[in-house]
Design goal:
Elements lengths: L4 E4 L3 H12 L4 E4 L4 H5 L6 E2 L1 H9 L4 H6 L1 E3 L1 E6 L3 E6 H5 L3 E3 L2 H15 L3 E2 L3 E6 L7 E6 L2 E6 L2 E4 L7 H4 L6 E16 L8 E3 L6 E7 L2 E8 L10 H11 L2 H4 L7 E15 L2 E2 L2 E3 L5 E2 L7 H20 L4 H28 L7 H16 L1 H11 L11
Helix pairs in contact: 1-6, 1-10, 10-11, 12-13
This protein binds flavin-adenine dinucleotide (FAD).
Flavin-adenine dinucleotide binds next to α1 and α10.
Length: about 400
């Protein structure tokens, strides 16, 4: 097979890239290790920056999101037990957020790919980029028990943290930066009406988050030990712990119900540089992981793809400026989100070695945030998403 861009991974990054390239007339083939149902079954992100919302709309992926998504414009932090700090991002920086599940985005992307006839190989195994420092790279893989090869101009590594693309970059070239939190998030999905606001909680028992996916689907998290397993957490134990960490006023509004999904996620910050090696380009979780506190993982995958699709489309129009600047430009935004996510993680969690002094200092920082318009502007600007860099910055 021969194509212009071989895309590895059919998650949000790979499928959005496929969508944008397809609409611009750039030939491509997508290779995915899992089945389509497996990808659709993964419960993950849910809070979209406004830039992500506009990117999806610009590429004909906004109809269901605009119908079913929930626009919100406050970041709420419960603290000192019963107090609630509300920061109005629209008031502070003129922007809102949208709650719309990654699972729905993935469905919308596959539906759009079906309609446009995009070529996707599911259950492709042994996927391996080759010859990426030459002008004629290729991707080898096995499909239906048969070895295959795609010759291409570029390889887009959108295959997530455990993919093969990043590891193709030699260790002598790759620089990795990592910080792992000494705790995890226990999350549940419940088919109950969500709390109408997105609310984080800083509590001496540990962090909690009340979030939503749609009007009948709630997502709640509590900080837990990485030694815990989901079997340690009955639904009753989960609800009791959540209610112990949030103000009574909000707890009273929450309708409990059986969990339909329960999992424990680690919190990790990870960046691999550069995001380009020869004609291999990384996008999304293949190059970086953020702790979910700042709700940035999916949003960064979208911003990488914005830059990368522009680089490929411009290349076929005779302009290589964006190919050359891709890695640096994407990494500037990645590090912005990385720093913010780490700051928010430090602000809101209880670390195992944290003393009462540290707890007081955290509370003072939230108190400062509550009283300072400047601090609220800085937080809002980063939470709703730093601006994309445009043509002049290339
Ligand atoms: C449990 C969990 C909870 C999360 N919660 C949030 C959240 O609340 N907010 C937030 O913003 N972000 C969250 N994230 C992060 C967010 O989901 C990711 O940032 C996002 O999925 C990145 O998209 P991606 O396409 O880059 O990677 P992925 O979604 O990982 O997609 C990569 C695709 O590549 C495929 N693949 C992997 N290896 C190969 C291979 N060798 N060959 C072919 N295909 C391969 C995979 O099967 C997968 O389909 C969460 C992530 C996890 C794991």
């Amino acid at each position: 097979m021969r194509t212009q861009v071989a895309i590895i991974g059919a998650g949000p990054a790979g499928m959005l890239l496929s969508r944008i390239l397809g609409r611009a007339g750039v030939e491509h083939i997508v290779l995915e290790r899992q089945t389509r149902d497996h990808v659709l079954g993964r419960i993950r992100a849910g809070v979209l920056e406004w830039g992500t919302v506009e990117t999806l709309r610009d590429h004909g992926l906004g109809a269901r999101m605009d119908r079913e998504g929930h626009v919100h414009e406050t970041i709420n932090i419960a603290w000192r037990g019963q107090e609630l700090l509300s920061v109005d991002t629209h008031d502070r920086v003129g922007k809102r957020m949208m709650a719309y599940g990654q699972t729905n985005i993935q469905e919308d992307l596959y539906e759009a790919a079906d309609a446009s006839g995009a070529e996707i190989f599911f259950e492709a195994s042994d996927v391996q980029p080759n010859g990426v420092t030459t002008d004629s790279p290729w991707v080898s893989f096995t499909h239906g028990g048969v070895g295959q090869r795609i010759d291409c101009d570029f390889v887009a590594g959108c295959d997530g943290f455990h993919g093969a693309s990043r590891l193709t970059i030699p260790e002598s070239v790759r620089r990795e930066y990592e910080k792992v939190c000494p705790f995890g998030w226990l999350g549940i999905l419940s088919e109950t009406p969500p709390l109408p606001i997105l609310m984080y909680a800083n509590h001496e028992r540990g962090f909690a988050l009340c979030s939503m996916r749609n009007p009948m689907l709630s997502r709640y998290y509590v900080q837990c030990s990485m030694e815990d397993t989901v079997d340690d957490w009955s639904d009753d134990r989960f609800w009791n712990e959540l209610f112990a960490r949030i103000p009574n006023e909000q707890a009273d509004q929450i309708q409990t119900g059986p969990s339909i999904e329960k999992s424990i996620a680690p919190l990790r910050s990870f960046v691999s540089e550069p995001m380009r090696y020869g004609n291999l380009f990384l996008a999304g979780d293949a190059a970086h992981i953020v702790p979910p506190t700042g709700a940035k993982g999916l949003n960064l995958a979208v911003s990488d793809v914005r830059y990368l699709s522009r680089a490929f489309v411009s290349h076929y129009q005779g302009d290589d400026r964006y190919l050359e600047s891709y890695s640096e430009m994407a990494l500037r935004r990645v590090w912005g989100a990385m720093r913010f996510s780490w700051w928010l993680t430090l602000l809101l969690h209880r670390f195992p070695d944290q003393t009462d002094f540290d707890q007081r200092a955290q509370e003072q920082e939230i108190s400062y945030l509550a009283g300072s318009e400047a601090a609220q502007i800085a937080m809002s600007e980063q939470y709703v998403g730093l601006p994309y860099e445009d043509q002049e910055d290339a």
